[in-house]
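Any chance you could type out some protein's one-letter sequence along with its backbone structure tokens so I can compare the two?
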Amino acid sequence: MLIQLKDIKKVYNQGKPNEFQAIRGVSMAFEPNRVSCIKGSSGSGKTTLLSMIGCLSRPTSGRIQLGEQVISSLPERFLTDVRRHTFGFIFQRFNLIPGLSVLENVMLPAYPLGLPYKKLVDAARRLLQQFNLASKADNPIEWLSGGESQRVAICRALINDPKILIADEPTANLDSKLSNEFMQLIAELRQSGRTVLLTSHDPEVFDSTVVDRVVEMRDGVVLADVG
């Protein structure tokens, strides 16, 4: 297994009157080179679960294992290193930086790795070429359409050559045509050897033939796991 979760719990404001249990004892495993979708309504816990898998937050209790390494108990500096080298992220609103060019946005996650600048530029341009954005490289990010912004977000997520791509509600701001196009891009990424974890309440995503597995959540627990 690539990722294993054992009795994961996430509690906010623990011990206070407004204590909230976002994740309530979830155990599951994810195999490599598959597309898995965690679906559920707002507040179901799917985004919280994905953020812990991606080392963006820690569980209150339980264990998360990546390969042979337990990552849930790592010191923050080591957790940051695992996140930078293992995961690529696509956010719901893309989180592209206004005022920067398309090329600069793609390169951003790689700066902390200290790669030679020319090597980084070349890698970013190759990704833009792969996703038919080479002609947009020097354009301000504000000039892009929704579909183009989505593809730039994918390029940025891939700049560090991650094993695992995490996408949180990636089609929330796209129409059905662009949602379908996005899922075809996900299919290509799986074929190239990536593991993809998605969250969505969009049928264009979780009903797609591209998705190998659908996990349904509600109120911080797993209701169904198919695939």
Observations:
- The chain has one domain: 3-226.
- The mean pLDDT is 93.
- The first strand starts at residue 3 and ends at 12.
- The helical segments are 46-53, 76-86, 102-107, 117-130, 146-158, 176-191, 203-206.
